[in-house]
Design brief:
By secondary structure, this protein is of the alpha+beta class. It has two domains: about 90 residues, Sandwich (Immunoglobulin-like), CATH 2.60.40.10; about 110 residues, 2-Layer Sandwich (Transcription Regulator spoIIAA). The strands form four sheets. A four-stranded antiparallel β-sheet has the order 1-2-5-4, with no helix packed on it. Strands 3, 6, 7 and 8 form a four-stranded antiparallel β-sheet that branches. A three-stranded parallel β-sheet has the order 9-10-13. Strand 6 and strand 7 form a beta hairpin. Helix 3 runs parallel beside helix 4. About 30% of the residues are buried.
Length: about 220
Amino acid sequence: MYHWLGAHPLTQDGLEGTRFAVWAPNAKEVCVLLDRNHWKHGAFYLSSSDEGVWTGFIPEVAVGETYKYSLKTPVGNIIQKNDPYGFQCEAPPKTASIVTDLKGYEWGDADWISNRQHTDWLDAPISIYEVHLGSWKRPWDGRSYHTYDELADMLIQYVQEMGFTHVQLMPITEYPFDGSWGYQATGYFAPTARYGTPHDFMGFVDKLHQAGIGVLLDWVP
């Protein structure tokens, strides 16, 4: 589903831009809010389908631009929402979604993937280290958090020293309130921006896999 819904940079009829798609079956209108329209309802309308999916292509909207959806409710109220299928969000306390391209990362974990496919995990020893990335270690340079890359290096060393086979991350999808430890998901398709970009998170997983460490994710429905 995420291949269709969300914001996807692409070329259409020779024009580079972004295709937006969101499921909002009860909305009367859906617009895309951007810096270029001063975040006002009414500039970039999306078209609805019988299934309640609103879609549209906006030329010249590039990777890195922030956006939200503006919806008119059945009673005429205008509300703003970030993209439930967005792949990247602004770091809290900001709440806008960010146009991003998930393609282009070069994975180096082919050996891990091959071994995983040929391992009987019901018969293999497993020792899992559960960790909350935001509170496990804090930087001493004034930043609130370490980056995905820094955390990968520190976790690899610790996990290998302690003999764990897997790391289980407490909720890593985007969430607004630090005190929830991630159990307040607002963006199921966006790794939290607290520690970096989606590609940075790919690098985190890739590093652990290359070190022979599996990665499990807490899922919060």
